[in-house]
Amino acid sequence: MQQTPSGHPVTGWWTEASIYQIYPRSFADSDGDGVGDLPGITARLDHLVELGVDAVWLSPFYPSPQADAGYDVADYRDVDPLFGTLADADKLIAEARSRGLRVIVDLVPNHTSSAHRWFQAALSAAPGSAERSRYIFRDGLGPTGDQPPNDWQSVFGGPAWTRTVDPDGQPGQWYLHLFDTGQPDLNWDNPEVHAEFLDVLRFWLDRGVDGFRVDVAHGLVKQADLADWQEPQEILSGNEVDKPRPPMWDQEGVHEIYRQWRQLLDSYPGERVLVAEAWVEPAERLARYVRPDEMHQAFNFEYLLAAWTAPAQYAVITRSLEATDSVGAPTTWVLSNHDVVRHASRLGLPVGTARPNGIGIGDPQPDAALGLRRARAATLLMLALPGSAYLYQGEELGLPEHTTLPDEARQDPTWARSGHTQRGRDGCRVPIPWEADAPSYGFGPSDASWLPQPPLWAEYALDRQRDVPGSTYELYRTALRLRRAHGLGRGTLEWLSSGDEVLTFRNGELTVLTNFGATPVPVPAGAELLASSAPLHDDGTVPTDVTVWVRA
Ligand code: GLC
């Protein structure tokens, strides 16, 4: 049982949960328009029960112009017709609950959509007005104000400021958007913004959700002087102790917001969770988001980014556990999500390759077989770690990135805003395959798919893997079943070896061994093999890039 520094057990369903991320537009399409929707998800909930996860996290489904695939929210209290209705959301929550699945929804508080009624009101109001003070409007620099107020760049490329046009047609003030032009940043110095989001939280808590994944949790508060920052903009900007902190990320003021939200969640019955999406380094700095009176969990992106070597994995696992233990929070683990190259492809790139922002035709292609082999080993290692594990839809099928998506099909604003230098995140967002021989591989009733699915999706389809011994899907099912049965999520990690090529640890009665090196490694003598990410050698040794779970 994990404990706080003062010895209290860390409680809450999320502390040991496996949580499955659904990206609604690419999960299951009920009406054949090529975009997944909420009724599609509801119809497929039994898949998640069969898989053996505890909860789902739904990426945004709110009304939105879809400038950033729904992370540009125009109305926080409704459902986009593309995805269904509010009644469909209620049904999904109820159906999930009746199957024992918890539901986490996405909350996007750093910015609204430019189509949000607040931003529209701000555009037609005067500089200095109450309407404009909900966002970050500034006069431009230079004699005619035609230079942006500072040098900040958008995470997606290009300037982080856009100039407005006044009602009389003259060029006006500029507004800040750390992401797309269609995502104006809110001004969290304004009490009205605080009140609004407390109310949005109540709206979804009252509808029965079990928690919130908080988008860009490290970005809400900006340094008051909006000082220039010469560095190129990245969502992961690294806050090493000896480097100055970027003026747009990880400012002290964000923590007060989460303390307030925590109080609100605590006032509700049941166990409701706040999960921070905060690209903050190092782990000690990230741990500040999950202090006892703030959020409950934060995504562990340092783990996702760690190289596939024994020393790197040992270091990141050890550091993660220490950092969260220091504040009494549960550790989390994640290998894939809708913003990064899927791990079945990422791990097929040569060790040491910089994290690519998308892969396209003409780019060096990952080694697919090696990537899948390592992904299976990485997943089996991850699912044995104490804490909670986040899984991204399709990874249970061993789905790779779509690495040859035609550039003209790309929809991530990153591609255009970076001047076609960063391919962006479409390759991990392609609708997932359910049935090898059905239209759109069973994604929906028609051939339509908002991003084209590659022909190789057939071999990854769920119906080609279900009940097939050795398939990736069956590996996930076995691992999730054993993880539950052995209480691994609430266990304790004890390192048995941490060499340059092999890692071995114990969690309860399970011993876990991963061989990263070229030399086959014997399984501990007399041990019973419970799971293996790939077949062992005939002499029973563990091959390269394989993880085994044994009971010694
Ligand atoms: C988060 C989301 C990402 C989105 C960005 C802006 O990082 O995960 O998909 O583009 O925030 O909302």
Estimate the mean pLDDT confidence: 95
Fraction of residues in β-strands = 5-15%
Give the full name of the CATH homologous superfamily of the largest domain: Glycosidases
What level of helicity do the residues show? 10-25%
**CATH hierarchy: architecture of the largest domain:** Alpha-Beta Barrel
The radius of gyration is 23 Å
* Bound molecule types: alpha-D-glucopyranose
Question: Which shape, going by the Cα principal axes?
Answer: globular
Helical/strand content category: alpha/beta
Give the neighbour order of strands across the main sheet.
9-8-7-3-2-1-11-10
Characterize the largest beta sheet: strand count, sense, and whether it forms a barrel. 8 strands, parallel
Tell me the number of strands.
18
Low-confidence stretches: none
Provide the number of structural domains. Answer: 2
Number of helices: 15
CATH class of the largest domain: Alpha Beta
What does this structure look like?
The protein is α/β, with parallel strands linked by helices and 552 residues long. The protein has 2 domains: 8-110 and 191-473, Glycosidases (TIM Barrel, Alpha-Beta Barrel); 117-176, Oligo-1,6-glucosidase, Domain 2 (Oligo-1,6-glucosidase, domain 2, Alpha-Beta Complex), CATH 3.90.400.10. It contains 15 helices and 18 strands. It has helices at 38-43, 45-51, 86-98, 117-124, 191-206, 254-266, 283-287, 301-305, 310-325, 343-346, 368-382, 413-417, 457-460, 462-465, 472-485, and strands at 18-22, 55-58, 102-107, 137-138, 161-165, 171-176, 211-214, 273-276, 297-298, 332-334, 388-392, 493-498, 502-507, 510-515, 521-522, 528-532, 541-542, 546-551. It has an 8-stranded parallel beta sheet. It has a 5-stranded antiparallel beta sheet with strand order 12-13-14-18-16. A 3-stranded antiparallel beta sheet has the order 4-6-5, with no helix packed on it. The longest helix has 16 residues, at 191-206. 51% of the residues are buried. The structure holds alpha-D-glucopyranose. Alpha-D-glucopyranose is lined by residues 68, 71, 108, 179, 215-216, 235, 277, 338-339.
